Amino acid sequence: MVRFIFEAFSKVVDLVVAFYLANPRLLLIIVVGAVFLFHYLHNVVQKPLLFSPNGPFRWFLCSNCSTISEKYWPTIWCYPTHLHTPLATILRGLLPELKYHREYIQTPDGGQISLDWYDPNGDGKRCQINHCTSQVHADSEKPIALFMPGVTGCSQAEYLKTFVPIAHQIGYRAVAINYRGMGNTELLTPRLYCGANDEDLRTALLHIRSSNPNAKIVATGISLGGIILSRYLISSGHDSLVDAAYLVSVVWNYLEVISNMEKGLNYQLNRFLTKSLIGIVQQHRDKFQNLPQYDLEAVQRCRTMREFDDAFTIRMFNYESTTEYYTACIPKGKMINIKKPTLCINAADDMFAPGEMLPIDEVEMNSFVAMLVTSRGGHIGFMDGFLPNLTHSYMERILEQYLTALIKLPDFRCDLTNSINTQNNYNQY
Fold it and tell me: Which residues belong to any copy of the AB hydrolase-1 domain (predicted)?
């Protein structure tokens, strides 16, 4: 038996040597490919981790969101975070623009935000009057899916091109908020937006709720939108006008992340985002150029987000320093105050919010919150498959299953919240 094995092994070696002598480059490619494939299957493809206390919300997710229990197969040819993130942005950006009807909302300080209500059968024109209700609120009982874009995003942000149609197909009225000055929303006052202020979100929610008193509202916040939404959920607690939430690629510790963004490959992404922010200020230059607190030439010279926030953001929102501002943006340390069902999804390799910065300990102490952590996925990436299905990649499938499960509940404001409260009361004894 031993002799047979030895002879078979010798023949295999001879065949490999002969193949190498005839095709040295091809053999090298095969060996490297085999090693890479082994690495991908062993180290990259992983089942995501779900962090949440045992109880009704965790059971609800595990019973209704099958993707949570499956392995995540990030796109094999671009799974490293610094490749995955920009490619996902570029590819989703190729999707056609969405058709909306627009509703303008005045803020208490004289500013203006806008709500874009998805209308795939419309002409795509914007409503040019405030509180356009003829089509927007035709069915006040129908549940609403509110979407909040990232730092330089609007209702046409590439990730909303996939999220919004999914919510509509399930049966929600999908609406995206445009922050002040964004999405061709005229800037009426010298004030934009930031992650440490949720006043405009409160204004939007009060308006939506007053027009739809009986409708369920599920809010999705992406990146900066998730910071603002989490801030609102934390500060409003049980009184939140949002009935459930989905937070995607939220930066949970802004202070640490800003320092991380100034290192290595992250620096180039930092520069790109800074240029985009400078572009927003330049677009509304007339509103700021005569105000003494701003030096727009200094803003133009900024190379990093820290420099931009020091020259512009903290002066707009009256913070003494960037450290004070970044600290105010941090949801971490306050998660226990969220009192509405909230599902979060983060990738452990997110260059903005890497795994070691995630508030996992806090999540495991709050029965209203669950956090799904994938080993890969980058920042708002989460593509999967060799040829990714951009409209139904990993984060889209999670959203679809989550929204579908919620809409089936007769009243998830009571069904989920009351059962969680019952569980919490039971755990006290």
Answer: 147-385
- Tokens for 189, please give them: 């006052």
In this model, does residue 8 exceed pLDDT 80? Answer: no
The pTM of the full predicted model, rounded to 2 decimals, is 0.91
pLDDT of 3 > 90? The answer is no
**What does the angle CA 414 – CA 419 – CA 423 come to, to the nearest 5 degrees?**
150
Structural contact between residues 230 and 331, judged by C-beta atoms closer than 8 angstroms = yes
In the block, tokens 């409160």 appear at: 202
Helices marked H in 101-190 — which ranges?
160-170
b vs e for 367-384, b when ≥16 Cβ sit within 10 Å of the residue's Cβ? Answer: bbbbbbbbbbbbbbbbbb
In whole angstroms, give the CA distance from residue 185 to residue 73: 39
Q: Quote the crossing angle between the two packed helices 224-236 and 199-211, to the nearest 10°.
A: 70
Active site residues: 223, 350, 379
- pLDDT, tens only, 218-274: 999 999 999 999 999 999 999 999 999 999 999 999 988 898 899 989 999 999 999
Structure tokens that stand for 406 in this block: 């919620």
